[in-house]
């Protein structure tokens, strides 16, 4: 008998509610393949915590899988902080069941004698990260599946520093969870330990966001913004932040302003997808706006569109936005006088141009694995250094260290400050970016994501990674591969000398090829979605801004050749 059926049987005991048992019985009778997919494994923590499809089963998000997580986390907290009065803060987004799942998580914590601050309504992820330290909590939880489709939900865990859990906490917590049976979950809540929070917590976060993202840019009265929350949580913060910073010409896309877990006006509520911003861009063209900003459901990612050299709205990718934001912050620091302790941070699959920026400004550049928890860890690991800002290619950015996760609220304000100031000076966000390319090198990136669902999809992704490792690419667009970085073994191999150098980064299932001409290709399975991702970065010199269009077209053609060569198009 398949092993998963033993697990199914345990879920038919009286501990599980009648609706759960009934749904399992229906699956047994009508859809055994679906039953297997729901029970053949346990959901695991990835780069963004636990995330998955909602429903009955160990491989789904539901009150029992999240309850077990919370019970294990409660047990771990009591061991690590024995004798302390434990406190947690919980937020949730617009997704179906987020509010009820958040309530369940709060009840389990309270049943374990832990004080809970629970946001009374949906709030942004950066507000949760900020609240952990603001309320002096041991842990923060946010119920969200970020930009995933409507059937998903998730559970992110934040530690005392406001950053997501990292080693060794994550492994120790997972071990604690795995040692539990579902019957060990304490669901009997203590209402006296659950306190609803809202206005005071909102005021603390919004004030801090304005303080960190407002640089008194010129030209705010003449700067037009179109903003869309894509049915998510940022509507609770961004309009107020922009207002307090002095922006009065803000047009909100009302059709997308109401939080809605069905995300009815978009195919995907992901600002990485051009379609998500189409309604906002149409409005911007209609009213002659200068910038479009859109955020994902939990408001940690932002996508922006600005007017290009032809005056048309163009969506920038996460690398482009990150470069100009980081340069602007470095310029502000430089104007005040550097203290020599500054650093910026990014990830191994983001643009290498961040390293060139660091060189140009004489600051340190720290690189981590994919996922913002690694950037937050840099801040925690180097308390005597000064984090200026940083981000990753997947449309996330962090302004300073007052929030310890990607923060689309403050980053939206920062983007507007840059663009408003540029316009007042006779330039633009786009032109300032081109000037960056002239100064630091023209880097162009592209991401290819292949979706592979279910058990067979997971096996296919696994085999693709094995194939790339065992049958390495020798050349990319005619340029010889000279370095292979294998993060599974944390080694970098120089193919010309054979020298193997350790990489001082935790192991991860990522493979990176670097060629003689500086072309970089990275491959990695997503930690939060059934996808395998390929990241491409190429670069050349841009001698003067007037050459931008010609050189951009050459780089675009090169990337297209590479994608075709690797059969990924």
The total of helices stands at 17
Number of domains: 5
CATH topology of the largest domain: Alpha-D-Glucose-1,6-Bisphosphate, Chain A, domain 3
Under CATH at level 1, the class of the largest domain stands as Alpha Beta
**CATH 4th-level superfamily of the largest domain:** Alpha-D-Glucose-1,6-Bisphosphate, subunit A, domain 3
Q: What share of the residues lie within helices?
A: 25-40%
Radius of gyration: 24 Å
Unreliable stretches covering 5 or more consecutive residues: none
Proportion of strand residues: 15-25%
| Overall geometry | globular
Termini gap: 41 Å
Structural class: alpha/beta
Number of strands: 24
Mean pLDDT: 96
Q: Sheet bearing the most strands, described?
A: 8 strands, antiparallel
Q: Give me the CATH architecture of the largest domain, please.
A: 3-Layer(aba) Sandwich
Family: Belongs to the phosphohexose mutase family.
Domain Alpha-D-phosphohexomutase alpha/beta/alpha: 44-182, 207-305, 317-436
Keywords: Isomerase, Magnesium, Metal-binding, Phosphoprotein
Organism: Maribacter vaceletii
